[in-house]
Design brief:
The protein has 18 helices and 20 strands. The chain is α/β, with parallel strands linked by helices.
């Protein structure tokens, strides 16, 4: 098996991944297609040898205890990011090719703003750029710059570490994986979430959720010379502001985000915490240079029956939402849409019990045998979310029914072809973050389609709340120069 693996890795530069499962043929992904090497069967011992050869004793034990491990392997001088896991037939692994040498900044077509930032002796900086603009790579470059300075005599005895703050456990793991794939040694990075040890001794980089550290004393934060707040549009909360105030020893503070809410007050708060705002790039420019996938937006307006619209003339906002999310006919429409679409689909909802769970069950029950349908809410752990994300990236017709709070922000899904807005929302941040889940280039180069479900229950001159929210989303589409079309459907004619 190893001879064939080395041959393919060395001679075929188009291979992006290897899929290695005990009891199955060796397989690899090339230009989005999985190809089986039918005459090369993988034995359990092959995986064990790969694990023990490339991983240290601590990592090997972790795999034995948890049955999963994220690490790195080297094949014929080439570096691969490796995810080891166990199956019923024995060990398995997915290998993703990564560059062994990180290019220097001169090899990228980077905006002048980044050079201005790096030339600063000290300061507070807020960097904004849409999903797919490379914020994790920027974070890697910034942290590397700081740590390299420490090795050349520019050192503070106490404030020497880098603290990276993210909003969710999933993003801790995702950021960790990104930094490792860029070349950071795993031993240099400490992760903090869900009660994990706060002792950072022996680690130069700490990645933590803000929830895990905001109550820690000021002395704990004094060990960090650089603080980076990822998804920093959320730093207007008191807890996050408290963290930044405690990190008084940090010579550098950076904030990165894909979205600002457009409010002057919000921008002023962030400027007070991080300093001048640098807008690195725009979604439109990244689409124009083929870095991000093209986006088509289909606004599907459901026109409700006159009897229903007349009744809703006096309904409150909550009453309207309860009616919309509990509508069997509406949920049936979304179910059929999700099942009919080609490619991987993300269905985003807002209410777990009222909407998400019934919608998931409906889709799952109607799906063809073997089709992958997943449910994600705040109760689904980080490890399971990462597993779902990995499965979707390797699938062609998977459906993920996920809450806006868990999959709208920061979670990167490479091969996502469709997004369905199943719940009304007018938040600029939430809308743009949700759209961003589908803008990363798929392996097959296909574009992304957003289906924006709009509920028209207006009566006479009074627009209903969901329709007003849709108007706000339309303003966002226009501002971002997204192409969109309106489709009208006579909905719920029976008045139920």
């Amino acid at each position: 098996m190893f001879e064939k693996l080395e041959e393919l890795a060395k001679n075929n530069k188009k291979i992006s991944d290897f899929h290695i499962r005990s009891g199955s043929p060796l397989a690899y992904r090339q230009t989005g297609e999985i190809i089986m090497v039918k005459d090369v069967m993988v034995k359990p011992q092959d995986l064990i040898d790969m694990l023990t050869t490339n991983c240290n004793e601590h990592e090997t034990k972790k795999f034995q205890d948890t049955h999963e491990l994220d690490s790195a392997v080297t094949i014929s001088g080439l570096r691969f990011r490796a995810n080891f896991y166990k199956t019923l037939n024995g060990p398995a692994a997915v290998l993703r090719r990564v560059e062994s040498k990180i290019p220097d900044m001169g090899q990228f077509d980077l905006p002048d703003a980044l050079y201005d930032i790096i030339d600063m002796h000290k300061g507070l900086v807020l960097v904004t750029g849409p999903t797919g603009s490379g914020k994790s790579l920027i974070i890697h470059c910034l942290s590397s710059y700081w740590l390299e300075r420490l090795t050349t005599g520019y050192k503070y005895p106490k404030a020497s570490r880098v603290l990276i703050i993210v909003p969710t456990t999933s993003l801790v793991e995702q950021m960790y994986g990104d930094l490792v794939s860029y070349g950071k040694p795993e031993s240099a990075i400490h992760r903090i979430y869900s009660g994990k040890d706060k002792n950072c001794d022996g680690h130069s980089i700490v990645i933590s959720t803000w929830q895990s550290i905001y109550k820690l004393p000021k002395d704990w934060f004094s060990q960090f010379g650089m603080v980076i707040g990822d998804e920093c549009h959320g730093f207007k909360s008191k807890s996050l502001m408290s963290i930044m105030n405690k990190a008084s020893e940090a010579e550098y503070r950076f904030g990165t985000t894909g979205t600002l809410d457009g409010a002057l007050t919000h921008e002023l708060v962030l400027q007070g915490l991080f300093g001048k705002i640098y807008r690195v790039t725009t979604t439109k420019s990244l689409q124009d240079n083929d870095t991000l996938a093209q986006l088509e937006i289909k606004r599907i307006v459901l026109i409700y029956a006159e009897k229903v619209r007349k009744e809703f003339g006096k309904r409150t906002y909550q009453e309207e939402l309860d009616y919309i999310v509990s509508s069997e006919k509406r949920n049936g429409f979304i179910r059929n849409l999700a099942l009919d679409l080609k490619g991987n689909t993300l269905v985003l909802y807002n209410y777990v019990e009222k909407h998400g769970q019934p919608l998931f069950r409906s889709i799952q029950d109607a799906a063809e045998e073997g089709r992958k349908v997943f449910f994600v809410s705040g109760d689904v752990g980080a490890t399971d979310r990462e597993a779902i994300r990995g499965i979707v990236e390797r699938s062609k017709e998977a459906i993920v029914v996920a809450s806006l709070g868990t999959f709208s922000t920061g979670i990167n899904i490479k091969n996502l072809h469709n997004i369905i807005f199943a719940s009304p929302s007018k938040s600029q941040i939430r809308v743009l973050q949700s759209i961003g889940r589908g803008l990363r280039k798929s392996d097959d180069g296909s574009d992304t389609t957003l289906y924006d479900i709009i509920d028209d229950i207006s009566w006479k001159s009074r627009k209903n709340f969901a329709l007003l929210h849709a108007d706000e989303r339309e303003k966002i589409y226009k501002k971002e120069q997204f192409k969109y079309k309106n489709y009208t459907i006579g909905f719920n004619r029976d008045g139920h």
